[in-house]
Structures are given as C-alpha cells and as structure tokens.
Design brief:
This protein is an alpha+beta fold. The relative contact order is 0.12.
C-alpha cells in the first residue's frame, strides 16, 4: 500500500518533471561518460591483451644490421628468454596504377614452412606464401582495402633497388601493426603505407641476407628482469650493428595504443565528477526552494505525528529518485555511445575483433557516486527540515524588507518603472541565490568555452603544423644517411624550387632517471621549409654546440635550458653524446630534439650527411619530379604534405579526437540544464507574486519581463565570469587531449568565446520561452490560493 508521503512524492515529481529531467540529464551525462570511457578502456585493454597472447607478440625487439643465424642459439640461452624468432625486415616501394607516387611499405619475412613462433599474423583472406614460392606475398588487410586489392592480384614493388613482381595470395592483420605509420612519420594512413609478408628465402635473396637476420624477436618468462635481458642482447648484437634492443612498451604501435588507453582512463577519472558536482549544486537549489515553499506542509506533517526522520526521508527520496533515474539513463546511454564509439576504434586501431565490454564496476561507481553527490547537496537542505517545529513551519516567514535600500539604489529606482524596480529589488535582496545561479551558468559556459577552444585548437594544430612549421611540398627519405651532394642533384631536377636537407638520428635521450626513445633532428642554418619555433611562433636559431628540445620532450625528461641531455645514438658507431640544452621549442607534432645539422654531423664524426630532404616544387612538373626521385637508388620513400595533412585531419576526427564532439554536445546539455533550472526555480518561487501582478492589471508582457529580466541580468553577469573560468579550463582539457603524437594548443580565440556565449544565450532563449509559456498558461486562482 502506498503511503500518503509516497503519494505526495509522486505528485511532486510530476509537478517538477521539467526540472527533474534537466537535473537527471546532467547526472546522466556524467555517468554516461564514466560508463563509456571505462568500457572503452576495458575493451581496448582486454582485446589488446588477448590479441597479443593469441598471436604471440614478442616482448623484446632487437634490430641489427646483419647478424649470422647462429646467434639465435646464443640469444635463446640468455636467462629469462623463453623463445627466439629471427627474421628479415626491409623497406620497399610499391607501385600502384592509381598512385603518382610509389607507396612506402615494410617487407617482413615469415618461415618457409609453418607459422611464425612470434609475431604471428591473423589471416583475413587467403593463405601464407607456399614453400619455394618467393613471388607470393601476404598484404596488410587495411592497405589492401584502401587500394581495392585482393588475393590473386599482382603487385610490383622495389626492394633493395630491384623491381620485382609479386602475386597476392592472402590478406592479414597483425598485433605488431595495429597502429601503422611509415618510417619517419607519426600519422597513420592506410593508403600511404603497407606491410608485405613473404617467405624468408625470397626476402633473404632480395636483401642479401642468406644465413643471416636483421631483427631478433624474444619472448620473456614471467618475473624476469627485462632491463638485464636487454643489456645482454645489446652486448651480444653490438659487433653486428645492433641498434639497441627495446621492450614492447617502446614498440611504436603498442606505445600509441597505450597512450590512448591512458588518456581515456584519465578522462574517465576527471570528467564525470564535474557533471556530478554541478548536479549536486542544482539539486541543492531545487530542494532548498521546495522546503522553503512547503514550510506549511512540513509543519502540518509534523503536527499530524510524522517524525523528523519520516519527513526528511520524504525529501531524501525525491533526491534519490532524480539521482537514480539520471544514473540509470546514463548507464544505458553509456552502453549505446560506447558501442557506437567502438566502431571508430576498430578503424583507428586495426584489431580483427573489438567488442564493447562493460565494466561492471563503472555501473556501481556511477550510481553510487551519483547518489552520494546528490545526497551531499540534499543533506544540507534537510537540516532545515529538522530545525522546523510545527508552530514555526505553519507561520509564514517574514516578508523581505525592501525599505532599507541604499541611497544609490533608491536614486536608481526612481528612474525605473515598476517592473524594473521589482527586478532590482529581488537581485539586491537575495544576492546569495543570484550568485549561486550566476556561478552555475558561468560553469556551464566555461565548459562550452573550453570545448569550442579545443575545436579551434585542433584546427590550429593542423594549420600551424602544415603551414607554418612545415612549408614544404614533398618530403624525401633516404635508405641510409647520404652525402649532402645528393641535395645538389635534387636541385638540378626541373621544377624543383628549393631543397633543404635534414638528418634524423635514432637515439635514446636521458636526463637523470628519465629517458625517451626518439630521435635527434639536425636542421640546416636558417631553415625555411621545416623550422623549430618558440612559443611566439618565431623561428628558433639553432646553436652551434647545444640542442633545442620540444616542450613536450622537456617535460618528459624534466629538463630545462642549461641542463645537459645524454644522447645514446642507436645507429652507425652508436656514440654516447652529452649535449647542453640551449633552448626549448614549441612543437605540435611529435616530441623532437633539434640540433644544427653541421654540429650534429661533427658530433657523430660523419660530416656532410643527410637522411632526408624537404622540397618545394612546381606542380606542373610534379609527375616528372616524382619519377626522377623514385629512380634514385638512395631514395627510400616520398611523402606529399597534402596527403599527410589529410591523414592527420582524419586522425584527429577518429579515436580520442572524436570524443571531443561528444564532450561538446554534453557541454551544451549541462549549460541548458543549468539555465533551465535557474529559470524554473525563479518561476516557482514567484508564482504567487506574478499571479498577483496579473490580477491588479499588469499585462502578460509586463509579468514576463519581471520574471525573465532577472534571468537576463544573471546571465549577463555570468558571461564574463564564464569566459574567465573557460580560459583556464581550456588549458586543462587541452593537456588531456594532447599526446606524444600531437599537442593541442589552448590559446585565446575571440571566436570561441563568442560561440560559447551564443550557446548560453540560445539555452537562455529556449529556457525563457518554455517558462514564459508556462507562465501564460498558469491558473491565476490556484496560484493566488498558495500561502507564503
């Protein structure tokens, strides 16, 4: 049997359904983000672990120039090594009829018989190359899909300077290539980089590796000291050109997946509390207003024998109903949104399977935190219920005294009409409540400002990276560091306007206990096509002796200008250099370290060497230039900036980048929820006053002005406050979206603030229209019967 208090609870919920839905929506989006993000973290983490284990992804990767196959036995004898797989890898250029440029690829050997012991492949179509068939290859499935290639098609590729024809016999995916990028690039593009698997004898013949290998894969036993194993491997392979073994955590594909998971995990911990805190604030205002307006009912309930606990429980149930309803809706929304997002991640990371998995803890945490945050706001109000005695509650509170206004306000009131004076009196006599509404609206606008700023930051990253930092048209990479005389040969190609050399040296940079596996980039004096810039977007002059680190790398190494960075070079003679840090540069792509090209070559004792070049060209000669560059034996690959920009733009609109659109939509929801509740509360508190004005002759327009002008003033005050809060909040959210791959700048952009203000004004317009509609439809007799 339903008790009288529960009947009242249902009536109250129906009466304030608009506010309940708005507050529940704010709670719901907080829980939705929690469920979605924790679900994505669980899905990516568990799928990655299962994929790695099922296809035996190696724990250690050890590249080497050329080592005899007999060393595999010595590697297997290292304590802690459970399995060893040697293989041959090499660069290739694929010629496609629909491409003006050859496409870069990585060729990987597979055993002539059987499957790889480590780094196995998942065949999506076809089979592995047959024994003795060196012309058969398996192609990376995502690359094949990008170019509409299928088993049975033929493919031409250049390997080690020789052009060869192959027949595709299968398509595959691999845990090693979930995040696929061309050498020297950070942005994945399925159409611009492929992977070829072919039999080991065939690849050995192509790269002169009979009886040898150039990469060893190792699997480790549980609990082994990985650092000790890496040290043993390096010492064993050093005489054969070993460039430094590294663990799975530094493998390029796994590294970017780990960053994505860590970013989602951090967002799941930091974003939902913002929404739940706002919801608690809104519930506090709503329930406080209800207690004030139902003083007489509370007194009557206590007079009829209801205890403080029973009366308090009634209002607490109201809080729980809104909180639990919002949390349940958020859980369902999180499931739906998570399943929608998982499709983006399937394309973003090349998992053969990726099913959205629910984290049961997120449901428990989401509902529990929603109830607790809502209760925190409600309990402050329930204290007022316990303090009210029946006699006090049934006596109407003393009306506010508007007589003792200050001289300035009195003079201002004399210039205003009656409705305007009513608005001014309410604003000045209830400053705490007005300040609360203003802060809530300002918080909603701050979130909108931050998200719109992030939108602009993503666009600015793309524009600065490809228009200000990199001003070339074509990037050329060489198979090995070559003489800078090659640059003069490129300058003589008809249609080439400018050529600038660059040298990228693979290295481990260390400072104290911190280290980073990356590269040292040598730039020429006064570079024009590819530059290092400071925080003011001004070119950084390369010093003759020191290095300039990107701000991201400086933060990773916890290093400042004037300190010394240790550079453990992982190519050539592999010297260890101690280089002073001369400055810090602002970069938006990657985490580079820069040096003067001449100074870098002197430090390596390899003068006049470059590993790549940036070119500007005349588009009328483009095809001829591409063909000439392709025919140069030292050229390993070409990259067009226009294609790289398109790939980078795609990257930022998938995966973590796509979540910014979700958060932008949520920012509007929370802003609307706050503004709508402020308007509804103001209407509920003044329903009797507004009805009285109508009875004594005020028009609907006058009454609407009295109600909505108050909201307008609060919003106008909230706009600059929200702009200030949004300015600082945008830096925190930009840092959350930034990774080692790209950095999102949070800069002052007037357009972002204008758009955020329009969001608030749009929410205010809709909310005002809805409240004004209810005001025009209100029952004057019923409103006048309400006692105060």
């Amino acid at each position: 049997m339903v008790s009288p208090l529960d009947h009242k609870l249902l009536r109250d919920l129906w009466r304030m359904k608009g506010q309940a839905i708005a507050i529940g929506a704010v709670i719901g989006v907080g829980v939705m983000m929690l469920v979605m993000m924790t679900g994505l973290v669980a899905s990516l983490s568990e799928t990655r672990a299962a994929y790695y284990e099922r296809y035996r992804l190696a724990d250690v990767f050890a590249p080497v120039s050329r080592a005899p196959q007999r060393l595999a036995g010595h590697l297997a004898q290292i304590e802690g090594v459970s399995a060893v797989q040697t293989r041959i890898v090499g660069r290739a250029l694929i010629d496609l009829p629909d491409q003006t440029l050859p496409v870069q690829a990585q060729a990987v050997s597979v055993p002539e018989r059987g499957r790889p012991a480590l780094n196995d492949v998942y065949l999506t179509d076809g089979r592995l190359p047959a024994s003795g068939r060196s012309d058969e290859i398996v192609l990376l499935q995502s690359f094949a899909a990008a170019h509409n290639l299928h088993p049975g098609d033929n493919l031409d590729a250049t390997m080690n300077g020789a052009r060869r024809s192959f027949r595709i016999v299968g398509l595959a995916q691999s845990p090693e290539f979930l995040y696929v990028t061309a050498p020297g690039e950070l942005v994945p593009d399925d159409a611009r980089f492929g992977v070829i698997w072919m039999s080991r004898p065939g690849l050995a013949a192509a790269y002169d590796m009979d009886g040898a290998f150039n990469e060893a894969l190792l699997d480790l036993t549980r609990g082994v000291n990985a650092a000790a194993v890496l040290d043993r491997v390096d010492r064993l392979l050093a005489p054969y050109g070993g460039s430094g073994a590294y663990g799975l955590e530094d493998q390029t594909s796994n590294r970017f997946i780990s960053e994505e998971i860590d970013g989602l995990d951090a967002a799941a911990a930091g974003v939902p509390p913002i929404f739940l805190a706002v919801a608690a604030f809104l519930l506090y205002i709503v329930i406080s207003r209800m207690v004030q307006s139902e003083r007489e009912e509370i007194g009557l309930m206590k007079a009829f024998g209801y205890t403080n606990t029973e009366v308090g429980s009634h209002y607490f149930k109201l809080i729980l109903a809104i909180a639990v309803g919002g949390a349940i809706a958020g859980c369902l929304g999180g499931i739906g949104l998570g399943r929608a997002m998982i499709g983006l991640y399937t394309d973003y990371f090349k998992f053969p399977f990726l099913v959205f998995q629910l984290d049961s803890a997120s449901f428990v945490i989401g509902v529990s935190v929603s109830v607790l945050s809502a209760s925190a706001g409600g309990l402050l109000v329930l204290r007022q219920v316990f303090r009210l005695t029946p006699a006090t509650a049934m006596r109407a509170p003393a009306p506010p005294d508007y007589s003792r206004v200050g001289g300035a306000l009195r003079r201002l009131s004399s210039w205003l009409d009656q409705p305007s004076r009513m608005v001014l009196r309410r604003l000045t006599r209830q400053p705490a409540r007005m300040a609360g509404a203003m802060i809530g609206i300002a918080c909603g606008m701050a979130l909108s400002v931050a998200m719109i700023t992030i939108y602009a930051g993503f666009d600015r990253t793309i524009d600065l990276t490809f228009s200000v930092v990199d001003r070339s048209d074509v990037t050329v990479s060489f198979t090995d560091p070559v003489s800078d005389k090659t640059l003069f040969e490129m300058r003589r190609i008809p249609g080439v306007k400018r050529v600038e050399g660059v040298r990228n040296v693979a290295a481990i940079l260390r400072h104290g206990q911190r280290s980073y596996r990356g590269a040292l980039t040598g730039l020429p004096k006064g570079p024009v096509l590819n530059r290092a810039l400071n925080s003011d977007m001004e070119p950084v002059e390369m010093p003759q002796t020191g290095a300039v680190l990107s701000s991201v790398l400086a933060d990773i190494l916890e290093i400042e200008a004037g300190d010394t960075v240790t550079v453990d070079v992982r190519e050539g003679r592999q010297p260890v250099l101690n280089i002073p840090v001369s400055g810090i540069a602002e970069t938006l792509l990657g985490s580079p370290a820069f040096m003067d090209l001449g100074a870098l070559n002197r430090s390596l004792r390899e003068p006049g060497r470059v590993s790549g070049a940036y070119l500007t060209i005349d588009e009328a000669y483009a095809d001829a230039i591409y063909q000439t560059l392709q025919d140069m034996p030292t050229v390993a690959g070409l990259s067009l900036k226009s294609q790289a920009r398109e790939a980078f733009n795609t990257l930022m609109n998938t995966g973590a980048g796509a979540i910014r659109y979700v958060m932008g939509a949520i920012a509007f929801v929370i802003t609307f929820g706050i503004v709508y509740n402020a308007a509804r509360i103001a209407y509920a508190e003044r329903a009797r006053d507004l009805a009285s004005l109508r009875v004594i002759g005020f028009t609907k327009g006058d009454v609407g002005f009295v109600l909505l002008a108050e909201l307008a003033v609060v919003i106008l005050v909230a706009l600059p406050v929200g702009a200030i809060l949004g300015y600082y909040l945008s830096f925190g959210i930009a840092a959350g979206f930034s990774t080692d791959l790209y950095q999102i700048p949070a800069t002052f952009n007037p357009a972002s603030y204008g758009q955020a203000m329009l969001v608030v004004l749009a929410a205010a317009t809709v909310s005002g229209w809805m409240v004004k509609r209810d005001l025009d439809r209100s029952d004057l007799v019923a409103a006048l019967k309400t006692r105060e």
